[in-house]
Design a protein that fits this description.
Helix content: 25-40%
CATH class of the largest domain: Alpha Beta
Low-confidence stretches: none
Mean pLDDT: 95
CATH topology of the largest domain: FAD/NAD(P)-binding domain
CATH superfamily of the largest domain: FAD/NAD(P)-binding domain
Radius of gyration: 22 Å
C-alpha cells in the first residue's frame, strides 16, 4: 500500500493549489479526482456537437485569486479585465466604506485568522463595520445608495445565496463581502480551463501525483495517520488528508452525520452560443458595449425582493432577475469566428424549486428567464442562438440539482455551504487557518472552508500552510 505525506481528495482548483505548495515544500502528494480530468468547477468544455467553442461551463470569472499567489505558483494565466463600470462606482458613501474594508481585509485572507475584535480594530471604522458586519445589508443600501443603483449593488449579496436583503442572519452580508473585497472580476483568457490546466501543470512540476477517474469511498483516521479507500478498492495511507470537497461530503466519507442545516444552492446558469448579439430596446446602447461588462436584467431592488418572496413561497419568480456576460468580447480565443458566447446567471432560483418534477421546473425556469431577458431586447434571444451540428439551439441550462449530481455540491450550493465571516468566530479559531476539522490531520481545502467560496485559491493555500505548520 502506497503511503504519502498528503492525499488531496478532489482535484478542483483549490486542491491543485494545495498540492503544488506541499510538493514544493518537499512533501509527497497524491491528488485523487473522481472525474476524468481535474479542475472541478473551473473547467472549459465543448458543449455543443460540431461547434469548436470552449465555454467556462460552471464558474466563469475570477476576482479573489491574489496576484501574489498567482506569482508564487508561477502561473502563466492572463486575467483580462472587462470594459465595464463597477456596480459600486458612483455610490458615494457605500463605495468609500467598502473600499476601506477591502483594502484592510483582503490581505488577511491568506494569513492566520484574527479574532472578530482584531479585525474590527484593523478596519478601524465604526460606520463601515456596522454597515457590513453588524446590520442587514438592505439597511445600508436603502440609506446610502440611490434607488436607481440600489439593485445593481444588491446583486453581489445574492450570487449563489438565497437570502432576503434584510435577513437578520446576514448571509447576504457575507456573500457581499466575498464579492467586493477582491476588486473587479476578470475573464481568464482561454476560459476557466486555462486556469485549471496551468494549476495541474504546476502541481505535476512540484512532484505531486494526480489520478483521475478515482473516486474516494471513505476516510479513516486516528488523528495521526489516515487511510483513504477508493471505490475501485485501492487504498492509500497518508499523514494528512486535504479535502477539496464540501463539508457535507467530507462528513459522509468519515462516516459521520452531515452538518445541519443542509446546504441549498440558488442559481440558474445558461451557457449560450450566439450568431449575433441581440439589439436592445434602448437603441442608444449598442450590444457590443452593453454585453461587454455585466448586463443586468430586472435586478432593481424591489424586483429582487419580490423574486425572493415568490421563490421562498415555492414559486419560480414571475420575472426572474438575472445578469449576462459576453466573454468572447473580451477573449476571442474561446469561440470560432462569427460566434459569440453569452453566459447568464439567474438569482433566486433555490434548489427547493426543483425538488419535485425537476425537469418540468427547469423548463419553466428557463422559459421565465428568457422572457425576462427578452423584455429588455429588440431581438428575442432565441432568434440569436447558433445551432449545433444536429440543428439544436446552442443553449445549456444548469440548475442546483444538476450541480449536485455533476460536481458533488450538496444542494447545488456553489460555495459548498453558506459563506462564513473572514474572522475567527470562537477563541480556539484565532491564529488558525480556517481549514481545520475535528481531526488533527484532516483539513478542508475547498470552498466550504472559512474564507472559502469563489475561484480564489485561498482555501487551498491556507490548507497547505496549516499542514506545513502542523509538521
Amino acid at each position: 500500500m502506497a503511503a504519502y505525506d498528503a492525499v488531496v481528495v478532489g482535484g478542483g482548483h483549490n486542491g491543485l493549489v494545495a498540492a503544488t505548495l506541499l510538493g514544493r515544500a518537499g512533501r509527497s502528494v497524491l491528488v485523487l479526482e473522481r472525474g476524468d480530468r481535474v479542475g472541478g468547477a473551473a473547467v472549459s468544455e465543448r458543449l455543443f456537437p460540431g461547434v469548436d467553442a470552449r465555454l467556462s461551463r460552471y464558474s466563469y470569472l475570477v476576482s479573489l485569486f491574489p496576484r501574489s499567489l498567482l506569482d508564487e505558483l508561477g502561473l502563466r494565466v492572463e486575467l483580462r479585465p472587462r470594459p465595464h463600470r463597477r456596480a459600486l462606482a458612483g455610490t458615494g458613501r457605500l463605495d468609500e466604506l467598502v473600499s476601506r474594508v477591502a483594502e484592510r481585509v483582503f490581505p488577511t485572507l491568506t494569513e492566520p485568522l484574527r479574532s472578530r475584535e482584531e479585525l474590527r480594530r484593523l478596519i478601524d471604522h465604526d460606520e463601515a463595520w456596522d454597515a457590513l458586519f453588524e446590520r442587514p445589508l438592505g439597511e445600508a443600501l436603502v440609506r446610502l445608495v440611490d434607488e436607481e443603483s440600489r439593485g445593481l449593488v444588491a446583486t453581489d449579496a445574492l450570487i449563489g445565496t438565497f437570502a432576503d436583503l434584510d435577513d437578520p442572519g446576514l448571509r447576504q452580508n457575507r456573500c457581499f463581502l466575498y464579492h467586493v473585497v477582491g476588486g473587479d472580476w476578470d475573464v481568464p483568457v482561454g476560459g476557466m480551463g486555462a486556469l485549471s490546466g496551468a494549476l495541474a501543470d504546476a502541481a505535476r512540476r512540484s512532484g505531486a501525483e494526480i489520478r483521475t477517474r478515482t473516486e474516494v469511498a471513505s476516510i479513516e483516521t486516528d488523528g495521526s495517520r489516515a487511510l483513504v479507500t477508493c471505490a475501485d478498492g485501492g487504498a492509500h495511507e497518508a499523514r494528512h488528508v486535504l479535502a477539496n470537497v464540501a463539508p457535507a461530503v467530507l462528513a459522509r466519507l468519515l462516516g459521520e452525520p452531515e452538518p445541519e442545516p443542509a446546504p441549498e444552492g440558488s442559481q440558474l446558469k445558461l451557457n449560450m452560443l450566439l450568431e449575433r448579439l441581440p439589439r436592445l430596446q434602448d437603441g442608444t446602447l449598442g450590444p457590443e458595449r452593453a454585453f461587454a461588462g455585466t448586463f443586468h436584467v430586472n435586478e432593481g431592488y424591489e424586483q429582487l425582493q419580490r423574486a425572493y418572496r415568490e421563490a421562498a413561497g415555492g414559486q419560480i419568480p414571475a420575472v426572474p432577475p438575472c445578469e449576462l456576460y459576453c466573454h468572447s468580447l473580451t477573449d476571442r480565443s474561446i469561440v470560432p469566428d462569427g460566434l459569440q458566447t453569452l453566459t447568464l446567471f439567474g438569482l433566486h432560483m433555490p434548489a427547493r424549486l426543483f425538488a419535485g418534477d425537476a425537469d418540468q421546473a427547469k423548463r419553466a425556469a428557463v422559459a421565465a428567464t428568457l422572457e425576462s431577458v427578452n423584455s429588455m431586447l429588440a431581438d428575442p434571444l432565441e432568434d440569436c442562438l447558433a445551432r449545433d451540428a444536429d440543428g439544436a439551439p446552442c443553449l445549456e441550462a444548469l440548475t442546483p440539482p444538476e450541480l449536485e449530481s455533476e460536481l458533488a455540491m450538496p444542494g447545488g450550493h456553489i460555495f459548498h455551504r453558506d459563506l462564513s465571516w473572514p474572522f475567527a468566530e470562537t477563541d480556539d479559531e484565532v491564529g488558525r487557518w480556517g481549514t481545520e476539522t475535528d481531526y488533527a490531520n484532516v483539513w478542508l481545502c475547498g470552498a466550504g472552508a472559512r474564507r472559502g467560496g469563489c475561484v480564489s485559491g485561498i482555501p487551498g493555500h491556507n490548507a497547505a500552510r496549516a499542514v506545513l505548520a502542523a509538521g
